[in-house]
């Protein structure tokens, strides 16, 4: 239970950074929604990996960093594709502001991501 609380707290902090970058890219720089989403997620993924490896799941096997990085990259790519697809589906079907749609798609992906990160990547 403690790791779940830490995970969601850390993800919340990283998510604020991700959302800020996404909004900056879409509103100021006028990036395409999908490109801005993938870019902001890549930045957030690096921050998230470091935080989860050294804070959330600090009991994870320290000798497996390369394997963990590879699994994490694969998970991030998968989550990014799923999240972006879900965001575009939400954008197609709902008329809410893009930041609300992104938040909803990201929450669903974050729940899935916790279990993948805990059980497959860090194996705790």
Report on the biggest sheet. Answer: none
Low-pLDDT segments: none
As a whole number of angstroms, the C-alpha radius of gyration is 15 Å
Question: Hey, roughly how much beta strand do the residues contain?
Answer: under 5%
- Indicate the structural class: mainly alpha
Terminus-to-terminus distance: 12 Å
What's the number of structural domains? 1
Number of strands: 0
Query: Element order, helices and strands?
Result: HHHH
Global shape: elongated
- Range of helix content: over 70%
Q: Return the average pLDDT rounded to an integer.
A: 90
- Counted by DSSP, the helix tally is 4
Give a short overview:
Pfam families: GtrA_DPMS_TM (PF04138). This protein has about 120 residues and is mainly alpha-helical.
């Amino acid at each position: 239970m403690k790791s779940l609380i830490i995970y969601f707290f850390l993800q919340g902090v990283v998510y604020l950074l991700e959302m800020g970058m996404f909004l900056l890219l879409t509103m100021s720089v006028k990036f395409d929604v999908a490109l801005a989403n993938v870019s902001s997620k890549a930045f957030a993924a690096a921050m998230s990996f470091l935080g989860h490896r050294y804070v959330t799941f600090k009991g994870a096997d320290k000798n497996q960093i390369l394997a963990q990085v590879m699994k994490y990259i694969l998970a991030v790519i998968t989550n990014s594709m799923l999240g972006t697809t879900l965001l575009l589906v939400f954008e197609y079907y709902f008329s809410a502001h893009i930041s609300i749609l992104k938040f909803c798609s990201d929450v669903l992906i974050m729940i899935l991501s916790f279990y993948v990160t805990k059980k497959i990547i860090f194996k705790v």
